[in-house]
Design goal:
Two copies of one chain form a homodimer. By secondary structure, chain A is mostly helical. The first copy, chain A, has two domains: 53 residues, Arc Repressor Mutant, subunit A; 127 residues, Tetracycline Repressor, domain 2 (Orthogonal Bundle), CATH 1.10.357. In chain A, 73% of the residues lie in helices and 0% in strands. In chain A, helix 2 crosses helix 3 and helix 8 packs antiparallel against helix 9. The relative contact order of chain A is 0.11. The structure holds a DNA duplex (30 and 30 nucleotides).
DNA sequence: ACTTGATTCTAGCATTGCTAGACAACCAAG
DNA sequence: CTTGGTTGTCTAGCAATGCTAGAATCAAGT
């Protein structure tokens, strides 16, 4: 048995290596640069090995997205926990979210821009994704306002953040006024 | 001279054909399906002809994006002109925007998701893009609220709409509650 | 030592964006 | 009409992509 166990361990280790390398490559030069050949070369295996772990490139993106969702949830909870009062928590949440998108553009792309073959907003949505949304909901639910469904409010707030994040990163919005935009958004949307 | 003029006309006509076909193909099966080979075949010319009109695929996307920007501006002005009062105009604007994104997903992608090699939010930004933003500003400037820069407010509102549009289309938000989200957004962001 | 079964690699397919160089069509001058 | 040159278009090909079939290799158990 121990032989098989060792093999399984090694296999799991290699899978981690693949994902870490894919992410590294993507953050370095974008997901377009993550070709199966380059990835295979970096992990010092041949291409077909990748396909023994993942169905294809899409599934690799999906796996990175799941990692990212978990990290995003952690980052959001860390950001809000330091703040006092609902209003301050929402501001911290917004800043934390945009910060995450700026600092991990490739992971953010995997999560919300690219096709990783994941199911969103459904029953079979993977746990990390649900938890990411839950992290948003925890803080935003407090400021949804009377008669407004917390989940609906969270969706709208999230969409706004997402819009700011993507438009800024795509050069459609200048980064200078990022902070003013966040303040305006929180001021208007959150009911305190 | 008339010979040259005819040739120029024919050339311009063919350029229109290329763009219309690219757009058609993109709306049919997404921009990934718009390959230079398929495009060339549809217009019944060989691939290199495309490169005598555009530097490459990116520039074709950019050209479609410019068309789209002009159409979006028209659509937004048409939507708002029928509404009475600032509040109704903003609602109409939001609906019109999301409608445009839903009805022309490929064009919307060319405009705001893909790289068409265009400059945004700068001096050398092409006129149609500036005008698209202007169309938003005309209606949103009215409801920015005291002490809030109209352009800043427009950016935030636009980002929210963009977030709703992209997340919905990518399956990250369910389309059922689209209308509720718009109402909530307008209610909170617009100062009437 | 040998066989068997899993694992990994080499080599290749079809498709992509893009381009060089051959070829043909056309127009102006003789 | 013929010729010469320009302009335009096409054929053929490159390197890179995602993915896969089948050969080669390695390790485990007898």
């Amino acid at each position: 048995m121990s032989v098989q166990e060792r093999k399984q361990r090694e296999r799991a280790e290699r899978e981690r290596l693949i994902l870490a390398t894919a992410r590294e490559l993507a953050e370095e030069s974008g997901w377009d640069a993550v070709t199966t050949r380059r990835l295979a070369e970096r992990i010092e295996y041949s291409q077909p090995v990748l396909y023994s772990h993942f169905r294809g490139k899409r599934e690799i993106i999906g796996a990175v997205a799941l990692q990212g969702a978990a990290e995003l949830a952690v980052a959001l909870r860390a950001a809000t926990s330091a703040a006092d009062g609902p209003r301050a928590r929402v501001t911290a949440l917004a800043r934390g979210y945009l910060d995450f998108a700026t600092r991990n553009p490739a992971v953010y792309d995997a999560l919300f821009q690219l096709d990783g073959g994941l199911a969103y907003a459904q029953e079979d949505t993977p746990e990390p994704l649900k938890d990411g949304f839950a992290a948003l909901l925890e803080t935003l639910g407090e400021v949804a306002g009377d008669g407004v469904h917390p989940a609906l409010f969270t969706e709208v707030f999230w969409a706004s953040l997402h819009g700011l994040a993507t438009l800024t990163r795509a050069g459609r919005l200048l980064p200078e006024d990022a902070e003013s935009r966040v303040e305006l958004l929180v001021d208007r949307l959150a009911v305190v």
